[in-house]
Amino acid sequence: MTPKEILRYTGRWSGFAVLIGLLSGSASAIFLILLEWATNYREANPWIIALLPLGGLLIGYSYHRFGSKAVKGNNLLLDEIYQQKEPIPLRMTPMVLLGTVITHLFGGSAGREGTAVQMGGSLADQLDKWFDLSQSERRLILICGVAGGFASVFGTPLAGAFFALEWMLDRKVRWKSVLPTFATAFVADWACEWAWGVGHTAYVISEVPPHTLVNFLWVIPAAIAFGFSGRLFAWSTHFFTKIFSNVISYPPIRPVIGGLLIAMVVWISDNTDYLGLGVPRIVEAFETPLPWYDWLAKTGLTAFTLGAGFKGGEVTPLFFTGATLGNALAVWIPLPLSLLAGIGLVGVFSGATNTPVACTLMGLELFGLEAGFFLALSCAIAYLASGESSIYSAQDLSSKPIFFKRKPPLG
Q1: Residues 6+ away with beta carbon under 8 Å from 216
Q2: Fewest CB atoms within 10 Å of the CB: 3, 18, 141, 257?
Q3: Per UniProt, which keywords does this protein have (predicted)?
């Protein structure tokens, strides 16, 4: 490229990055404000959990009647990034926003990353209607939307940018993608946190042990457990999705039945610790020993919620699963409890999404540089240990080194 072409490219994509960043960051801010309201209202009025089947009906019918392709969620974005076919409908933004808020208001167990990524991607793709974009440019627009949504909902711009680039498991990261993706992530984070004044939860690793070979070796069994946990999370989500699809043919009824069963479990157990995001429990995992089964309960309830057709993301429940599993492993592994919770938080996330670099950077942004090597080691090993699994069914795993293969079906 000539200097003139470079200058024109930089100006054009800087403008796109600012626009997409402002749109996705503002969407995330509005979403987080509504999500906080829904969470606070549910906690102050626990009786509303009994109406979860009604919330499921609202979500199920609206997606069945108006959702069209939007029902595929994050997998639709991956499909369009891999092989562009049709525009992503703008309706995806309000539908996933309202669907996730309703899920959390009435007590479903879900996250927020999926919502932010879908809003960012659908808003970004609308630029294709107004500008003369080539296929490669549209692909980059979608990547920028994913980066903006992820970065702004968690307050981690570096992780957001790398997540968008790494998410596709494409080893060929084109240099032209770097500037727009990172610029969008930082603008989106700024728009959410500074322009809208929406903050993010702080997690603290209070003690980092010496960087010795023995301590690093102890990370290995923990990270393998995190990888298997990520694999279990992905398998469980796909399992319940398939069960609901096979057993209940009419989609709007699936979240109604799922909501009824979840409400019954909450009523029988008299326990709401695993509903919603579960952020208070994640914070506790860094500070004090918790019941060993917390990670398992959150995995099952989130997989059931999403499999039934409720809306939301998986990443914050993965944080919950990883932090509480690390907390439980502190009984057997002689590393500080807060460190195990921290490397578990990013490790399970890495295993379930196959994004070890993004998860390592997220750990650095959340916890600081001191624990960096422990975080990187956990993410890399968990990524390898998770094998042929992903919470995203459309994710192409052909370029991933697989050491734990699924057995072929008999016969």
Answers
A1: 373, 374, 377
A2: 3
A3: Membrane, Transmembrane, Transmembrane helix
Contact status, residue 312 vs residue 32, Cβ threshold 8 Å: no
Q: Is 241 helix (H, G, I), strand (E, B) or coil?
A: helix
Q: Please report, in tens digits, the pLDDT of each residue of the chain (411 residues total).
A: 677 777 887 888 899 999 999 999 999 999 999 999 999 999 999 999 999 999 999 999 999 988 777 777 777 777 777 777 778 888 999 999 999 999 999 999 999 988 999 999 999 999 988 888 888 888 899 999 999 999 999 999 999 999 998 887 565 556 678 899 999 999 999 999 999 999 898 899 999 999 999 999 999 999 999 999 999 999 999 999 999 999 999 999 999 999 999 999 999 999 999 999 999 999 999 999 999 999 999 999 999 999 999 998 888 999 999 999 999 999 999 999 999 999 999 999 999 999 999 999 999 999 999 999 999 999 999 999 999 889 988 887 877 776 655 544 433
- CATH code for position 65: 1.10.3080.10
DSSP-derived letter for residue 381 is H
Q: How far apart, in whole angstroms, are the C-alpha atoms of residue 197 and residue 334?
A: 40
Domain co-membership, 259 together with 130? no
> Phi-psi region for residue 349, left (φ > 0), alpha (ψ -120 to 50) or beta?
alpha
16: closest CA among 188, 156, 266?
Answer: 188
Let me know: does 340 contact 222? Beta carbons within 8 Å. Answer: yes
For the entire predicted model, the pTM comes to 0.92
